[in-house]
Amino acid sequence: QVQLQESGPGLVKPSQTISLTCTVSGGSITTDYYYWSWIRQPPGKGLEWIGYINYVGVTYVSPSLESRTSISRDTSKNQFTLQLTSVIPEDTAVFYCARATTGTSGMDYWGQGTQVTVSS
């Protein structure tokens, strides 16, 4: 059973960086052919796909966020990370990590989500 767990600060000030880590257990992030994704849900809105890092370390980020977003991984810890820079209050959301069977869809395992609030 694959399990994912998000971790990171719950409160970030405007103009700073959201840094989140997803720790994966029960499966390796280097296993063919999975995509390890970040998704967010602002309050009162739907899910927004942010980006992924795949089993060989290739990343892809939504064009709407790519100028502020980086995704990386630490295979020794079986973790992948999200950094979102220059945040504004509208970046407030519940952030999820998930495993996907295709690039931008087919999420079969999800973390429980972590609330990140951008506020001074």
Overview of the molecule:
The structure is a single chain. With 120 residues, the protein is mostly beta strands. 0% of the residues lie in helices and 51% in strands. It is built from no helices and eleven strands. The protein has strands at residues 3-7, 11-12, 18-25, 35-41, 48-54, 59-61, 69-74, 79-84, 93-100, 107-110, 114-118. Strand 7 and strand 8 (79-84) form a beta hairpin. It is globular. The N and C termini lie far apart (39 Å).
Brief account:
The chain has 120 residues and is an all-beta fold.
Rg measurement, Å: 13 Å
Structural class, judged by helices and strands? Answer: mainly beta
- In helices, the fraction of residues equals under 10%
Approximate strand percentage: over 45%
Uncertain ranges: none
Shape: globular
Order of helices and strands: EEEEEEEEEEE
How would you characterize the largest beta sheet? 7 strands, mixed
Number of strands: 11
Name the quaternary structure. Answer: single chain
> What is the residue-mean pLDDT, rounded to a whole number?
96
Distance between the termini: 39 Å
